[in-house]
């Protein structure tokens, strides 16, 4: 077997495995049950697995178009790249989306601002275009509102007013809803039949809606204009090396500030016993150290890193004291850590600092607009 054949088998095998895991994950979201029995719950079978293709096919199609957007533009720029590596992930004991995404590996050193721009922008715009098609189909072909009773037959006793009763008394984390962004809100308002729209907490059971929403979510993460994310490549090309070295860390600090806003409040320390106080203080210390690790690559000077970390924490506490109702989205903290600690905040420097053409500038600012349309301040509402 030749090395090329082994490579194709690896990429193809990972894709097929990811197709299976995303299909299983999609079925679990659709039916609200798992394939592996937990606490006597009725498990899913073959029929539900087949139904899961309604999620996995559109979702993987968007992901694949995104990655091949990078691939073909890289090849057009004579940059050697691999085929996409798909990353399957299915835990079996809890709901996932069946994958950690996909990536291509660039095998050449890129020394051109234009090449970074072209390769970086191709994936998000290509995937975004297909996501629009999926979302249009999802919201223009919603099933009758009674469809939700096939998933939750216990709701029938309340009729279509189930939203007023079904979520009372649920344990923490017992309900998951999809947050809003500008584009998702547009489709719900202007494309969907209002009479067929389910309660926000039930949209996870609609496979095309979920696939399109997740596509917007991951597009927005990719387009965050920091480091070596696609958005970082785009902004680096648009504003140049010197400006990006200041803008990227500033945006990262703002992102981290928002993610952790409200995670700890001054009132959290007003507890009845010393034991509770020291417990809360210990969690707070872990949070501060967590942020320090996330900021560790923002400067080579450790004291500067500590100064930034403590300034962010102090400002978060101040705003939480001033406006206790202001809260960020702690779910972003994991991505803050991965971005700051592993992916990096800064962009690799290029010797060729060619000016951007008018067409590239328009496309670049279009990508910024796409980011604003897709970004959800609170993408998943867990209650």
UniProtKB/TrEMBL annotation:
Matching Pfam families: Peptidase_M50 (PF02163)
Keyword 4Fe-4S set for record: no
Domain Peptidase M50: 55-241
Any Gene Ontology biological process: proteolysis
Organism: Spirosoma utsteinense
Lineage per the UniProt record: Bacteria, Pseudomonadati, Bacteroidota, Cytophagia, Cytophagales
Main localization, broad class: membrane
Subcellular compartments: Membrane
Keywords: Hydrolase, Membrane, Protease, Transit peptide, Transmembrane, Transmembrane helix
Membrane topology: Multi-pass membrane protein
Similarity remark: Belongs to the peptidase M50B family.
InterPro entries registered for this protein in UniProt: EGY1-like, Peptidase_M50
The protein's name in its UniProt record: Membrane-associated protease RseP (Regulator of RpoE activity)
Matches recorded under CDD domains: S2P-M50_like_2
Gene Ontology molecular-function annotations: peptidase activity
Cofactor: Zn(2+)
Transmembrane region(s): 85-104, 116-139, 204-224, 244-261, 281-298, 305-322, 328-346, 362-382
